[in-house]
Amino acid sequence: MKNLKGSRIAVYCASSAKTNQRYIDQAEKLAVEFVRKEVKLVFGGGKTGLMGHIASKVIQNGGQIQGVMPYFLKNIELSHPLVDDFIFVETMSERKQLLLKNTEGLIALPGGCGTLEELLEAITLKRLGQYLKPIIIVNQYGFYDPQLEMLEKMIQENFMRPEHRSLWTVVSNAKDALQAIESTEDWPSDALFNATYKN
Fold first, then answer.
1. Residue range 81-100, pLDDT digits in tens
2. Cβ pair 106, 7 in contact under 8 A
3. What is the dihedral of CA 117, 138, 47, 91, to 10 degrees?
4. 113-152 as b/e, with b when 16 or more CB fall inside 10 Å?
5. How many CB atoms lie within 10 A of CB 57?
6. What is the largest CA-CA distance in the chain?
7. How far apart are CA 31 and CA 41, in angstroms?
8. Burial status of residue 14 (CB atoms within 10 A of its CB: 0-12, 13-18, 19 or more)
9. Beta bridge partners of 86
10. Which helix (DSSP H) or strand (DSSP E) does residue 42 occupy?
11. Contact at 8 Å (CB) between 68 and 98?
């Protein structure tokens, strides 16, 4: 079991201001766990949706947080006003790189196309040995069922290997996500060989 105290964990999630309250409630429970375990939240920097709520809850409870956002989003005032530790970059690609840099894991809450794209890139990077830390998918209320079915179809159709099911871990409650990171082993450093090996 890992000790996450003092570590950095990235969270991908929705910025939509119309996010259902039940997802907001779950995000706030995760925020409480970040503070309780003394883990630094690294997130996309937004002030609305799940992004805004998880950030506000961490800050209100005295936790640590870092936002990463492209300048073009800052310029339309989408950055969270209560976050002091901000990194501003030029592109979305730079943002994704910094969200994962020096983190001990990644948590994906429900979100839109941006969240899904970030999640799938992280899974791809892990498959290729470029990111070795746990990836936790929070499948609240079955939100990610269609995507998980798609990943399973990729395995069944031999586009991915059976062992690639271990690239991600699924939990149903956001409050369990950090515990899942604590109990999940890092991906092996020779993952690139396994990704390209031909049976």
1. 899 999 999 999 999 999 99
2. no
3. -20
4. ebbeebbebbbebbbebebebbbbbbbbeebbeeebeebe
5. 21
6. 53
7. 8
8. buried
9. 67
10. strand 40-43
11. yes
HEC secondary structure over 56-119: HHHHHCCCCEEEEEEHHHHCCCCECCCCCCEEEECCHHHHHHHHHCCCCCEEECCCCHHHHHHH
Task: Band the pLDDT of 198: cuts 50, 70, 90.
Answer: low
Judged against a pLDDT cut of 60, whether residue 151 lies above it is answered with yes
End-to-end CA distance of the chain: give it in Å, rounded.
Answer: 34
Tell me: pLDDT of 105 over 90: yes
DSSP character at residue 46: B
DSSP state of 19: -
Confidence of residue 33 (pLDDT cuts 50, 70, 90): very high
Residue 107's φ and ψ, nearest 5 degrees, are: -120, 130
Structural domains of the chain sorted by starting position, each given as residue range(s) with its CATH number in brackets = 10-196 (3.40.50.450)
Phi first, then psi: give them for residue 9, nearest 5 degrees: -125, 130
